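Worked example 3 (structure in, sequence out).
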């Protein structure tokens, strides 16, 4: 029986998943993100976190944990992600890096132009990325200068699953500190339904009135939900 040489003894077959990874990358290069389903995009992300393992089962398991909703998964809290079998800090870190990058891109698009009808979609997208999947309510204010350029956006308050305390005097005070000429208000409904409540409408009227006395305009109040958004101005409620 012939003896095996040293090269034969040390030779190992390449893991099967390496060819799969190359094929996914090639499909992404040729067809863009729309060429891949969500679980394969997630696989591409997991490659960096888990370089020597077949990650397809993990990608599918992670999506299943969020009913197939990739955006919900990417927005989930660290502790919630780590409840999934096979998800450790390295995976969570990579997910949070992608989430932070998406947030900064959407913020850059919102800042790029004057806040007019032409850039309104970018503004909505930014608010959706920032707030739509938040588990509790947050009240955000976008401060604009005289040319409708975005000066700053800030979370003015955080609350429970259905309430955030908001004080009109504090809103106006902060606008004066920043030298803002106008505002856009935004808050989320964790229930997913962006329909404004009676308290939303009343709070908006109070802020509009407080701002008007100091010649500050409130352009709109956006309510953000998982299932879309509502504009109080478009609804005729302010």
């Amino acid at each position: 029986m012939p003896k095996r040489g040293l090269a034969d003894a040390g030779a190992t077959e390449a893991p099967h998943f390496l060819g799969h990874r190359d094929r996914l990358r090639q499909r992404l290069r040729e067809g863009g993100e729309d060429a891949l389903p969500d679980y394969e995009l997630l696989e591409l992300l997991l490659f960096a976190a888990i370089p020597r393992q077949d990650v397809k089962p993990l990608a599918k398991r992670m999506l299943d944990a969020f009913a197939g909703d990739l955006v919900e998964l990417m927005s989930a809290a660290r502790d919630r992600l780590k409840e999934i079998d096979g998800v450790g800090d390295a995976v969570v870190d990579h997910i949070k890096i992608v989430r932070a990058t998406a947030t900064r891109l959407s913020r850059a698009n919102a800042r790029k132009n004057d806040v007019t009808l032409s850039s309104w979609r970018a503004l909505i997208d930014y608010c959706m990325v920032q707030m739509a999947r938040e588990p509790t309510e947050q009240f955000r204010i976008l401060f604009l200068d005289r040319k409708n350029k975005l000066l700053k956006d800030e979370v003015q308050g955080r609350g429970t699953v259905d309430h955030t305390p908001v004080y009109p005097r504090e809103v106006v005070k902060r606008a004066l500190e920043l030298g803002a000429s106008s505002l856009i208000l935004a808050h989320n409904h964790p229930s997913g339904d962006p329909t404004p409540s009676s308290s939303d409408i009343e709070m908006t009227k109070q802020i509009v009135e407080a701002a008007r006395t100091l010649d500050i305009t409130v352009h709109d109040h956006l309510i953000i939900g998982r299932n879309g958004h509502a504009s109080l101005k478009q609804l005729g409620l302010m």
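Notes: The longest helix spans residues 89-112. The first strand starts at residue 138 and ends at 144.
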